[in-house]
Structures are given as structure tokens and as C-alpha cells.
Write a structure and sequence with these properties.
There is one protein chain. The protein is elongated. Helices cover 41% and strands 23% of the residues. It has a five-stranded antiparallel sheet with strand order 6-5-4-3-7, with helices on one face. The chain is an alpha+beta fold. Strand 9 and strand 10 form a beta hairpin.
């Protein structure tokens, strides 16, 4: 487990003591943590905030019960927090006199703030960490696990003992990474809004080199993908990370594009041709598996008079629905359209032919 720096330990020691029955002091401490975390976030985003801009951010902060702390801060508060960030956390923050703004001299600097978490927040952190350990491949999995441990070790050991963290088991279906180094580079570029230079396998055996801005990282059908702005195509494109043969981060940064981010939805997640108005008859366990398997945001499962269920999907790629039907071992039978019925028939026949050989 990674040890805290002397600066962090010093800051934590000065700010972790909890006077009994003193809610006012507790709120003040929490707000100080929130302020410094927000300040570090602004600097990491390379937004070059001014002292006045930071003060406006402070005025929007709220504590856990939703009470706003407006009017409690001044520019002196901002300057004290900047000094604390620089002296206690080793932050390489500098002041640009031309723009009257602050910036990071070393953009690779990492901020790790000791947290004072409620039991509900710790439980959420534990559950999220456990899911992440199963979903993310190494080395990102290890980084997340160490970060969770770092936060939890400075909080209530009684709660952790009572909860018995080791008894929480999560068996999530994660994505396999064939090249952990590439995944780690892509993940870091997505996290820090850095441009990537990649060598991509176009699935037809040809390789192409391009610069991309990774706006969205997502897991679909057990594969990690990114939706990025492709500088070569001058448009947004989706890339399967396992088909990226090499990736390197460039110095250029980009601003997240809400249009690209919002374009990744369950109904528009892959570029396959979609088949409209798919209907499937369900029996047995296929009913619960259909409920757990979202193929479209407006899919419906309706119980029929004969006890079977009708699974209606407005539109879905054949590459997605046909393998799912075949995996249900006869308890999911396609009704329409004919092209889905025929695709399932061919898939089933191919399996039978293979068994006969």
C-alpha cells in the first residue's frame, strides 16, 4: 500500500482531530477539504483560474446536508488555500502576472487529499472499488484498488471491521485487455484530456495511424471502447481498445465535447446496421435474462395469455441479438422479422453441423 507523503500526513494530522459535539467545527473542516479539492481540480483542468474565479467556485460549494456556505469566504481564503496546496501538498502552482491567473507548472502532479467520510460514503466507496476491481483490467485495476485503500485507511476502522470488507463479493463481467500498456495509456489520456496518437487495426488486416481526442470511455459487450474525435476523418469515431496496436499521449489537450459524450447511448452505442421491430417469444429462464440484458432503452417484456412472454425490441443490431437468442438454449425463439429468424436458424444449424463432424 502506498504511503502518504510527510506533507499529506502533516496536513491530515492538523485537520483530522474531531472535537466531540462540535458540528460547527466539523462543517468548517469539511468545507476546507472541499475547497482545496475544488482548487486542485480547477488547476488540473488547466483552466487557469483567477483568484476571483476561484472565489466564485467556493461560493457554490455545499456540505453533505445541502446547506450552502455562501458569503463566508473572501480573497484571503483563496490565497490561504493556494498556500496550503503549495506548501502542504507540494503543488507546483504558479501565478501568471500577465493574466492574473494560476496554473500548474507540472501538469503531471497528482493531488491526494485525506478524506473525512461518512459511513454511507465509505460504503459507496467500497462497493465502487470492488466493482472496479472486476470490471477494469490491470494496471488500472491496481491503481483504483490502491486509491480506495489510501482513502479508507484514514477513516473509521470500526466501520470497516463491522462491515467486513472481504465478505463483499462482486462478480462483474468486465472487459479483457490484450495489451495492458495500451489500455493504461488510453485511460490516462481520457482522464487527463490529452490527445492520443494510435496505430489502429481496422479489422480487415490493414493498419492506420491517426491522432484522436478520446472523449468517452465505455464498456460494451465485454469490450472496452472509446469514442473519440478523429483528426484524420474530421469526425467522431468509435475505437475498440483491443484493436489499438500502439498508443502514445501527445502534449496537446482538448476540451470535452458534450455532443460526442451524449451521443453514446444504449440505443446508439455501436455502428452496426439496426434491425427494426424485433419480437422474441420467451419461456423459462430467458425471461429473467432478457430483463437483465438491456438492448434498447424502450424494449418491453409482456406476459401473454398462454404463459409465455413477448420480448419486443424497437431496433437492435443482428450482431447483438442473434448471439443472445442462441445462448438461451431454445427458451428464446425469434418471431419476426424474417431476417432475424433466418440468422438464428443458420446459427443453430452451424452448431449442429459442427457437433456432427
Amino acid at each position: 500500500m502506498k504511503k502518504s507523503s510527510p506533507q499529506k500526513a502533516s496536513w491530515a494530522a492538523k485537520n483530522s482531530a474531531k472535537p466531540k459535539n462540535n458540528n460547527s467545527n466539523a462543517v468548517t473542516r469539511n468545507m476546507q477539504v472541499f475547497r482545496i479539492a475544488r482548487l486542485a481540480s480547477l488547476l488540473k483542468k488547466n483552466s487557469c483560474p483567477t483568484a476571483e474565479g476561484i472565489l466564485k467556485e467556493y461560493e457554490s460549494l455545499s456540505v453533505g446536508d445541502g446547506r450552502l456556505m455562501r458569503g463566508h469566504y473572501s480573497l484571503r481564503t483563496v490565497y490561504r488555500d493556494i498556500d496550503a496546496l503549495r506548501n502542504e501538498f507540494g503543488c507546483p502552482v504558479r501565478f501568471d502576472r500577465r493574466t492574473n491567473a494560476y496554473y500548474l507548472e507540472d501538469r503531471g502532479w497528482d493531488f491526494n487529499c485525506p478524506a473525512n467520510l461518512s459511513e454511507a460514503a465509505m460504503l459507496a466507496l467500497i462497493i465502487g472499488g470492488r466493482i472496479a476491481e472486476d470490471v477494469f483490467p490491470d494496471p488500472v485495476r491496481g491503481r483504483i484498488s490502491r486509491a480506495v485503500d489510501e482513502i479508507l485507511k484514514s477513516n473509521s476502522p470500526e466501520f470497516l471491521e463491522k462491515t467486513l470488507v472481504s465478505s463483499l463479493k462482486v462478480f462483474a463481467e468486465g472487459g479483457v485487455s490484450e495489451n495492458p500498456g495500451v489500455f493504461s495509456t488510453v485511460f490516462e489520456a481520457w482522464q487527463s484530456h490529452r490527445r492520443l496518437h494510435i496505430v489502429y487495426d481496422n479489422q480487415n488486416g490493414s493498419l492506420s495511424e491517426r491522432d484522436i481526442d478520446p472523449h468517452v470511455l465505455f464498456l460494451y459487450q465485454h469490450e472496452w471502447r472509446i469514442k473519440a474525435y478523429c483528426r484524420m476523418r474530421k469526425d467522431a469515431r468509435t475505437f475498440v481498445i483491443n484493436r489499438i496496436r500502439n498508443a502514445s499521449m501527445l502534449q496537446d489537450t482538448f476540451k470535452p465535447d458534450r455532443r460526442i459524450i451524449d451521443s453514446v447511448t444504449l440505443d446508439n452505442i455501436v455502428s452496426y446496421k439496426k434491425i427494426r421491430d424485433v419480437r422474441i417469444r420467451l419461456t423459462g429462464d430467458a425471461v429473467k435474462f432478457a430483463k437483465a440484458n438491456q438492448m434498447h432503452s424502450r424494449q418491453k417484456i409482456t406476459k401473454k395469455r398462454d404463459g409465455t412472454f413477448l420480448f419486443s425490441i424497437p431496433e437492435v443490431p443482428s450482431e447483438v441479438v442473434v448471439p443472445w437468442i442462441l445462448s438461451q438454449k431454445g427458451e428464446a425463439v425469434p418471431i419476426e422479422p424474417p431476417e432475424i429468424v433466418e440468422a438464428v436458424r443458420k446459427g443453430a444449424q452451424a452448431t449442429l453441423d459442427s457437433l456432427a463432424e
